[in-house]
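FAQ: What does the model actually see?

It sees only this:
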Amino acid sequence: MNDVLATAAKDDRARRQVAERALLARWGEGKIGPSRNRIEALMDLLGQPQRTYRSIHITGTNGKTSTARMIDELLRGFGLRTGRYTSPHLSEMTERIVIDGLPVADRRFADAVAEIGPFLDLVDKRSDMPMTFFEALTGLAFTIFADTPVDVAVVEVGLGGTWDATNVLQSPVAVIMPIGLDHTELLGDTIAQIAAEKAGIIHEGTSVIISAQPVDGAAELIKRAVEVGAAVAREGLEFGVTDRRLAVGGQVLTIQGLGGVYEDVFLPLPGQYQAENAACALAAVEAFFGAGADSGPIDTNIVRAAFAAVTSPGRLEAVRSAPTVLVDSSHNPPGMAATVAALNEGFHFRQLVGVVAMLSGKDARGALEILEAVLTEVVITQNSSPRALDADSLGAVAVAIFGADRVTVEPRLDDAIETAVRLAEESADGILSGAGVLITGSVVTAGEARTLLMGAAR
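And it is asked to produce this:
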């Protein structure tokens, strides 16, 4: 029987890999055409699957995925069946489509691709350009959620907001995480322009949860909310973290929610930014349930249990010890600044060696300048993405910031990790508890490093 099951699992995995290749043959991720015509046509053909469940929609520059995972955990704590759609993935494409906390099964994924394939082809024939990879995957996720069925979907925007494929949802709750300068070639080169694009997920009747924002960004978000008559809750005014103290394995929070105060909330993740993500997640779930000052808080014990169970793979995640190896997916200066702050607060390395690989088009200089203050040395490398910034080019930027004596260039990621571990061990003088390695610069880098160090995605 075990042999039969193993063979079936292998066959399902092979079918899923074929389905993935078919999706990846489409126009690549990270590209956007200013139109929702294709995804709307697909939703029409599929019978509007995204209308069969409620949803919480999340945009912003940083913190979306961690917040989505927190919202998912909270909703499941209250007995709801959830779907979660996030991007990009760390190791396996199925991580993007999650049912009740688990990646969609290989067989389910492959079957769903086969089911919607003819509809994708039909939209392709009717459109000026074929459906993109992200549009097709979004249609796939929404269909799987409808077929499951789920009670609520937690959906992360792919890029921007207004023209993003996920914006066919018109969710009752929208969450706007911190906005910074990223994807400027597509979204605009000012905070105000980017915020205006991300504000597109705010619709009539939406309850909007707004994290702490730059002034220009907040103004655009409020402007959109007023235009469509959306209700607004702002971090620092209607909700927020009122107390935070470090604890073994994480931090203990007091959160002022929309409905009341939640004390002694243990969050097993480091960093002020994760505490702020938690406040946004809680406010979003309160809004989803209709909680407010008049109704009081939602069940505090469920909230505590849910937050205590939260994980955030690839977000300052310890994957090895002696020396400690941390994997982090920060890929822009605001994200890197949050990572460095969390490092300074929660870890006490005497020697910290970085492994950095980034994608082209990112602010590599800005990210490396932030890292310079905490890294003893840096090993520059590259990941396998077609958009990877080559190691020599990134190395030249690093030398200008760190100096040649603190920079090593290793084109292969596995060699780079091995070199960084060796450097950390050599610098520790036998006291490995004070030595560490930080692998960062991209979600792709974090995912590939995680697989090299831990095996299959967990």
